[in-house]
Write a structure and sequence with these properties.
Shape: elongated
Order of helices and strands: HEEEEHHEEE
Number of helices: 3
Bound molecules: zinc ion
Strand order of the largest sheet: 1-5-6-7
Radius of gyration: 26 Å
Distance between the termini: 75 Å
Number of strands: 7
Length: about 160
């Protein structure tokens, strides 16, 4: 037995059975999906890179005021008993960090010469080199966990 070539296929010009959805509905549904796929979603550039200077935990992504940010609750959650003595949550906006990454990358000598690479490339280099940045809320600095502990102020 052999398959027919496409030229020999019998293709009906009229629908062989009632359509489950109309062609118009199908196209409309596809457009909805395309819109949803291209809508801005919650994208974080720095997960896993930022560490809390108070407790040492990795800071978690949190969406705040329509922007990506990072916070640390120092191990507390809404399920744990409130402790009036615990330190305030650490909180850091992503754009504050991104604005200072070029300066940090020069100190880390991530790029050639004194021209900092583009921010996405800096982030990729931090990940590749497994460099984390520790945020100290008290003096608003980020310190790299490198031998020379390069530090930048972020405010
Ligand atoms: Zn913490």
């Amino acid at each position: 037995m052999r398959w027919n070539t496409p030229e020999d296929w019998a293709i009906s010009t009229s629908p062989a059975h009632p359509a489950l959805v109309s062609e118009a509905d199908f196209i409309a549904a596809q457009n909805i999906r395309a819109t949803r796929d291209t809508a801005p979603d919650r994208t974080y550039l720095l997960p896993g890179i930022l560490r809390c200077g108070i407790c040492g935990r990795r800071m978690e992504s949190c969406w705040s005021s329509h922007r990506p940010a990072y916070r640390c609750r120092h191990g507390h959650s809404s399920a744990t008993t409130p402790d009036p003595n615990r330190p305030r949550n650490a909180y850091l906006r992503e754009d504050q960090v991104l604005a200072r990454l070029p300066a940090l990358s020069i100190r880390l000598a991530l790029g050639p010469g004194t021209t900092p690479p583009a921010v996405p490339e800096i982030v990729a280099r931090l990940r590749a080199d497994r460099i984390t940045l520790t945020y100290n809320p008290a003096d608003q600095t980020l310190t790299a966990d490198t031998p020379r502990a390069e530090r930048i102020a972020i405010s």
